Structures are given as C-alpha cells and as structure tokens.
Amino acid sequence: MNTAPFPVRTLWPNPDGHSVNVIDQTALPHVFRIARLTTLEEAAYAIRSMQVRGAPLIGVTAAYGLALALRQQSGGDTLENASALLEATRPTAVNLHWALARMRARLLPLPANRRADAAWEEAGRIAEEDVEQCRRIGEYGLALLEPIAGRKSGRLEIMTHCNAGGLAALNHGTAIAPVYAAFRAGIDVHVWVSETRPRNQGLLTAWELRQHGVPNTFIADNAAGLLLSRGQVDAVIVGADRVAANGDVANKIGTCLKALAAREAGVPFFVAAPRSTFDFSRAAGADIPIEERSGDELRLLHGLDEKDAGKMAGKAVRQLPSCQAVFNPAFDITLARLVTAFITERGACAATAESLLSLYPEERNA
Asked: Annotated catalytic sites, by residue?
C-alpha cells in the first residue's frame, strides 16, 4: 500500500518476534504515525480505540494480540482469558471472532510450552491469507466493473462508504481493491468518498486514494442520494463487518441509506468481503449484534486548526452539551434484497443463502 512517508502494510511483525507495528489510524489523515504493540492490553486498546479499523485488519490484530499474550504467559488460562478480552473489544466485526476461533483451534491441542511460537506463526498465516484474499477480491471486482466502464463514454464513477481500502486490511482492502485494480488496468475511474460520520472514516479513504493517485471527491453523507438520483454514480461498492447466512449485511452506519438510494436509482450495489466476514451461524441480519459507541463521538468534533498543522494531536470541539442524549450505533443492516452481488476471494455471487453456499460449500454441513 502506498503510504506516506514510505510504502508499508497496515500491520507488520517486528524481527524480535515479540511485538508488531501498526499504522495509528486515529492520527490520520493529519499525521502518519506508527504504534508499536507489545502486549495483549495494547492490542486490545488498538482495536477498541480504532487505532486499527476495518474488519479484516481487526481480525489480524486480534490474532497477533493473542500471540503477544502467550509470549508473556503461555500456561494456565491465558489462552481463554486473552481471547475473551479481545472478543469484547468490537462485538459486530465477525473477523475478530473468526480469527480468535481459528487461533484457539490451532493452539488448544498443543502443550503450553509450544503455544507461543505456534500462535505467532498462525497469526502470520492469517495475515498473509488476508493479503491474498483481498488481491483476489480486486480481480473479481474488476471483472464486474469492466463491463460497466465499457458501456460508458466517460469515466467510471464509483461511490463508497466508510473505509474499506488498504487501511482496513493488511493490503489492497476489500471495497477499494476493485477500484485499485481498475486504476491499474488503465480505466478512467473516479471515486465519490462519503465522509461516514461520526468517525469520519471517509477521511481515510480520501487520504489513501490520494496516496495512490486515484481521482476522488469527498462528499457529505447526505449528498449521496442527490448524486445517485442524478445518474452521477455507476456503482456503489462497500465492505462489510459481518454478513449473515441469508446475505443480510452489517456495515458502517449509513450503508443502508446508500443501498436504498442505489436501488431507487437503478445503480448496482456491491458488497466486497472475504470468507472471514461471512457468519453462517447467523440466519439473518436481525441476529447480528450492533455495537453502540460512546455518545461523545457525536458530541465532540476532532480536527486541526491552522496552528495545529503537522502536530501529533488535534483538538476536540464540543458541538453538543454533555447532558444531551444521543444514540450512536456503529453499524446498520442492509437487507440482502438491496445487494446486487457479493465480491469475494472465490468470485462474485448473488446475495442469497444458496448462492453463498455455492461459493462456500463446506458450510452446508458445518
């Protein structure tokens, strides 16, 4: 991934085998800062505070967090206690729970004195698989975008929501991976980047696209319907934090509104996600837990003024009194009938239970 001041993944292990580095996304887009994680508690904080964000990256960070816990103490109840701490950080993103379940399955049969090294190795495998899966999502997404671009005389107009680019995974990303693939293929592509309040993760998407040289325009969330109704968008592509067995999608709050507007405008609405995001144990979106975050994410605004430019920390400005009641769900549910297709590492498919099982037949008898 192209990042300033040098190309790097969002997370990488250090040669000492006892720490990992992550891009501190709470500092972006103003400052590029690296955080070093050395303990379970630091990994849990990185997930909870959104130093790392995006379902695939959260899963990889959790895997390394478990490995760091076992570096400190491999015996006793460390494995289960560390898993419980990490699982509580972000309840909606199923990649986290998937990664921890995979880690436990690998580690539980081993004696305590072998678990630390095995955990480090397994976390590394999960990370490398994520990179490859996202690369393939880009390729399959490109196959869907090429016909749309071929029918146009002008540039291909893509709308996205939240951040599902390289910053949300180890590299490539999910929803933005097809955009990068199209850009590399020479397609004239432009991205409408939705701000995604209240965490404003669209800021990260715009920053990331600028690093890659992909033309983009930042918009207020509420401008999306106007653009779609005017025919200024050819496709909407979003990521996901969890997909139920029937194809219902949990993603960043505001996704459902874009899906509804896209359906009304006759614009395809694609959801890009790897296998770890599909939760076949949840029959429908109503079964997915929705995380509610601190009300201060609505009451306070964060940013830099002219004097802050280039500094490590910005300022918080209060827009609501502390006594003001607020409701701050982090995600919403987009019904499967609003999804044109899923883009996965195994190909694209319709948003139905049977189509998903055709891609993942191993889940039929799971």
From this structure: 241
